[in-house]
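We emphasize that the prediction below concerns an isolated chain of 124 residues; any contacts that depend on oligomerization or on bound cofactors are therefore not represented. The input was used exactly as deposited, without trimming of termini.
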Amino acid sequence: MMSLCLSLAAIACTGIGCYLLVLAGGVTKLRWLGDVTGFAKFPGPRVSVIVPACNEAENIGQAVLALLAQDYANLEILVVNDRSIDDTAAILERLRAANPRLQIEEINLLPEGWLGKSHALARG
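Result of the prediction step, given as a token string:
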């Protein structure tokens, strides 16, 4: 009985060992993305980040700068300033002057039947 268990264990270990060798051999044949020619020239699909903002003067600068720090080439940031009465608009204008990827949409009037944030997102 003991020899049967040892034999089964040896067969299982051999099978697992063979599987790992095959797996390791396959991994060594994989190409790295950086080695693919012409890939670096493709800017990737356009990615738009839409940020609704209402009276966010305390946080909007840091939030937008974090988004603008992304190194993705085909990225646009759109901030929808939804009727802010604090310094949100002025902060956004300063940031836009320094970075052309930032776009600002100003909302001055909320249409009847809309809620603020859902309207800002729809406009974005």
